[in-house]
Amino acid sequence: MPLVHALTFDVEEYFQVSAFERVVSRLRWDEYPSRVGPFVEKILDILAEHGVSATFFVLGWIAKKYPKLIRLIHSMGHEIGSHSMEHRLVYDLSPGEFREDLRQSLKLLEDHTGERVTVFRAPSFSITSRSLWAIEILAEEGITCDASIYPIVHDRYGIPDARLEPHRIRTDSGIIWEFPGTALSWMGLRLPLGGGGYLRLYPLWLTRRLFQRVIRQQRPIMMYVHPWELDPDQPRIGGISPVSRFRHYVNLATTEKKLRALLRAFSWGSLRESLASWQSQGVDPDDVVPMSTLARG
Ligand SMILES: [Zn+2]
After folding, report:
1. Separation of 286 CA from ligand 1 center, angstroms?
2. Ligand 1 centroid distance, CA of 109 (Å)
3. Label partner for 100 (CA 20 to 30 A): which of 47, 92, 136, 295?
4. pTM for the whole thing?
5. Ligand 1 geometric centre to CA of 123 (Å)
């Protein structure tokens, strides 16, 4: 089986991102003009055109408000995962609060789709060395694949020495897959690529070249895109730092073109399809990372 790369979307509004948390109160989310629906539909059209299925990590708040949208994504054969209820960073929650939030979001998504939800991505990759306890809770609550660890240095997320390729973690409640954000080792640094601001920032030729390097290392890429990244005309949020402004708004008008080009150039599927293809390349069945060694990171 050829290597299939993981195509993922985090379904949330432009005003729900972590960078705006301090200026956009959750209590006022209802007051902002919604734009998520048409851009999810646009993504679904693009995927249908390219005959690709993907994983959609849906925010519970969105699923509650737009159940038809979630049913539409599911009816088109895509995998549905949880992106938490209200985009709270995992390391800001207690283990009990995290579990409660996860249970609520899984129940909501399962009610809408009639299927078990077994994949999860934390808001802003917020499983870090401070919140590794979340892995155990994910396994206990029936998640079999997590995509919340970014093996890089970043001010808001990242475990700088975490493994670069998908791997299994042994918890007291069983084995869970971790499918990390994609990065390349480069001159002693780790260069993130393949999603969000990195995808918008790098020119297309560079992303292609970096993807080819990852493929030469025989590991699958994980692309992640938000509906708001295809929406250059979204209302601008004031009162944020220059860094946040740059990260959120840089090259929004290039996302759609880049997404289409990359869909044509590489082979994509859902998280589950990507993992299956990667396992078929001959992954060592004994290569399972114990929680205790992760916690060192
Ligand atoms: Zn998010």
Report:
1. 33
2. 16
3. 295
4. 0.96
5. 4
